[in-house]
Specification:
Strand content: under 5%
Number of domains: 1
Order of helices and strands: HHHHHHHHHHHHHHHHH
CATH topology: Growth Hormone, Chain: A
Radius of gyration: 21 Å
Largest sheet: none
Structural class: mainly alpha
Length: about 450
């Protein structure tokens, strides 16, 4: 037990609510890994899109991804404002979770040539997972102190890599040897894999709902009545309030740019590898390598950020992504794909986790869901643009290589804007806003320890 307690301390997961929060990364990463990154793209390319030309299939897949993320981009800031007014972060997270799980179950019934129905369910699942993450991210601001944010956020990503990797490893055996399990072929094994994701995602989400109390709305002089008009008024105030949080806005712009490249690599790398003729076993094995490497590297990024700061660590990650882009453009063999997977695994979790924790430090707690709703909009706008640009480039050139090379612009521009972010000024602005709203230093939830700052707030 001492070794276990020491490990939890090193990860920053010293309290039950922090562990329950991080476990949701373990839960939802099953969808991200299996459905978004690996198994469904392979199943779509070989079974679902049967009868479509390869370029048309790729374009429709990218378009479906963009439409789904656009839906989340439109909904998340409004729902974030609503949840802040009503104190319903967990309820909204649960609603998106149920949508995602049901859509994943539906994928198990998609067969050969059912590309339209398959893409609808894939899109709904994307709405479910990305929508739930908006409110999941916002919860971090309520349960972790400023000095805990980087470590807790990176620990969540590490658990996500570990959980997604373990399930993917089991599915790799299932897909390569389906007859061991009484299944006819890899297509049948893929459908079973989708069911396993639904069970995994739903089951490991339970601790979050049991351990983390619903954050209370704070009565700080603003009208807290729940109405659509009031929600939009509050959202308008948040957009105006970005002028008071200029550094958070700069970070959002930087994230808008570089997350476009990251998201496109995550979502289309498997389909790109398939186009190049890389075998199923190599594709799954390389992406499993990403999960394995991502576990320690995400933790190391958290520890490195504690020493040198989150912004320098992010700049290092973006430099690596520039190398990934060049490698993707020149990629020819399975060995190249494994090298790309290794590099991505080294920086993917750390860059995303530190972006989340850095933004959390720059937003006031009483409006965390609103601001993370805007964070989601900026992220999803780029996630929509990336696949669309990729699809348009494929249409124009007939090759995905030029589309891969275009990602360089996003990483370079994102790094240039990130360099201008003054982290300390952003933190001061957030703390001053909290002081005006009457918030203390401790994370504020219904379960705050008695006597802790904010623990007795109505």
């Amino acid at each position: 037990m001492r070794a276990w307690d020491a490990l939890l301390t090193r990860l920053g997961l010293t309290r039950p609510e922090l562990r329950a929060w991080a476990l949701y990364d373990w839960a939802n990463s099953a969808y991200v890994t299996t459905v978004i990154a690996v198994v469904f793209p392979l199943y779509y390319a070989s079974v679902v899109s049967d009868g479509l030309p390869r370029e048309v299939a790729t374009t429709r897949f990218a378009t479906a991804t963009s439409v789904a993320l656009a839906v989340v981009a439109l909904l998340s800031p409004v729902l974030g404002a609503l949840s802040d007014r009503a104190g319903r972060l967990k309820q909204l997270l649960g609603g998106f979770l149920v949508l995602g799980v049901l859509a994943t179950v539906g994928l198990s019934g998609v067969g050969r040539g059912d590309w339209a129905w398959g893409l609808v369910l894939f899109g709904l699942g994307n709405v479910g997972v990305t929508g739930s993450i908006v409110f999941y991210d916002a919860l971090l601001r309520h349960i972790a102190r400023d000095d805990e944010l980087d470590r807790v956020s990176t620990a969540g990503y590490a658990l996500g890599y570990l959980g997604g990797g373990l399930l993917l490893a089991a599915q790799l055996v299932l897909l390569l040897q389906p007859h061991w399990f009484g299944l006819a072929d890899a297509a049948a094994a893929s459908r079973v894999a989708f069911l396993s994701v639904a069970v995994w995602w739903a089951g490991f989400s339970v601790p979050l709902f049991l351990r983390i109390p619903e954050p209370r709305p704070v009565h700080n002089g603003r009208d807290r009545r729940v109405s659509l008009r009031g929600t939009f008024l509050q959202l308008g105030q948040t957009l105006k309030g970005l002028r008071e949080h200029r550094q958070a806005l700069l970070l959002l712009v930087a994230y808008l740019l570089y997350s476009d490249g990251i998201g496109t690599i995550i979502r289309l790398s498997t389909l790109y590898g398939t186009e190049l003729g890389i075998g199923r076993g190599s594709l799954i094995g390389a992406l499993l390598l990403t999960q394995v490497v991502g576990v320690p590297c995400a933790v190391l990024f958290g520890r490195g950020a504690a020493r040198v700061g989150a912004k320098p660590a992010l700049m290092l990650a973006l430099a690596v992504y520039v190398g990934v882009t060049f490698l993707g453009y020149f990629m020819r063999t399975a060995a190249h794909f494994f090298a790309l997977a290794l590099l991505v695994g080294m920086v993917q979790g750390g860059s995303q986790a530190l972006s989340r924790s850095l933004f959390a430090q720059m937003v006031p707690r009483d409006r965390a869901a609103e601001f993370f709703g805007l964070f989601s909009v900026f992220e999803k706008v780029t996630a929509v643009a990336g696949p669309l640009v990729f699809a348009a480039t494929v249409e124009l050139t007939g090759s995905s290589r030029q589309a891969v090379l275009s990602l360089l612009v996003f990483f370079a521009a994102g790094a240039a804007v990130l360099q201008r972010v003054d982290v300390e000024a952003g933190r001061r602005a957030a703390r001053e806003a909290e002081a005006r709203a009457g918030w203390g230093e401790a994370p504020l939830t219904d379960g705050a320890p008695e006597g802790a700052p904010g623990g007795d707030r109505a």
